[in-house]
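Onboarding guide, step 5: your first structure request.
Type a short instruction followed by the sequence, for example:

Predict the 3D structure of this protein.
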Amino acid sequence: MSDSANDLEDVGIIARPQAHLLGFPVSLRWEITRRHPYYLAFWEEARRYHRGEADDLSLGYVASLLLSAIGVSGEPVSPDKDFDQLSDADPAFLCGCVQPISLRAMVAMLINTLPVAERVVVGAILTASRPEEGENPGSDEADFAQKQYALDQLRRTPSPALDCCTDAPLYYIHLEASQRSIERDLEDQVRRQKKRRGLPERRVHTAKLESYLKVWDLREGWENGAYDRTREQSLLQIGKKVRASQSTVESRYRAAFQMITGHEFSTTLWLRLWRAFKFTGSTDAANATPFVPVRRRLQTPVARPLPDSVVSPAVREHTTGIVEGKSARWDDQALVDLQLDAQELIEKGMSDQEIANRLELDVDAMAYFRERVQEFHTQKRHASR
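The system replies with structure tokens like these:
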């Protein structure tokens, strides 16, 4: 994981484990990704940044980092598109376990992998590949000569780092060979690499995955590429609709949560994931703003530990860092404290209004908190009997 991704996790971002998406069929990768709150909230800003059209470069950069944290690469597409509508605009992360590598990705791999000295040498070699001053820049002969000179410099540069393979090895495929030969050789190479790295064979049983997403959609109010709180149904209501016990429905919901986030379900993780979207005055997740009392409760008046050098791209248009411009951050410990305080007061029999007054929350936010968190809390008690 990159330093930027680690820094994002330090400030409460729930990143997916590396290669989490690769365990699912391509169509399901899209379904679980477009349901992720980060994708819904930031895909448009990330797409503008990807196209060079961002009004706020800092926000666009952070949006792209957040999507990267959940395994999304390439230009995002609208979450209201079904998988069969993506034929002309497949995001890069949906290309499968075997996928073509763009030149941009190759350059990024060099930047992320090579030591400093090798990056300097490679940069000088690339610079040396351009025609000399005074020569016709459009001349094929001059261009060819400089390329050959640069390639010779590359061959003559002694460097173990340049001769190493990347952690995600790249392969040349001779497309004129038969399909059977390509598949055989690829299978052999993959087997060798897995054995060398001690990687076990992963098997994902896909038969029940769609039933997990169906429960998720009913519980979280997902429809037509967006979440709507007014469409949410309780686990009991869902059980009647899908003809399953409440414990089975909850089990499917928890499985869907792990599919979408890459982490086992917990109430705290659920709150962290939804805090900026569910505890709001809006049913539109992408434009939701937390209730002011909730926001005040979950913020700390201290500087973020995330440096501007990470979240602020080095561009001339950028004058004020994101961290400099926002002096408070979502505090995970405050979130846990809020959860524990609210649950304790609920167990004491206090009303939503009384708890809201005690914890300085909006009564609507408190009512929603009780309905969602208490449901899982109750199921947990039943399961432990």
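Each response can be followed by summary notes, for example: The mean pLDDT is 76.
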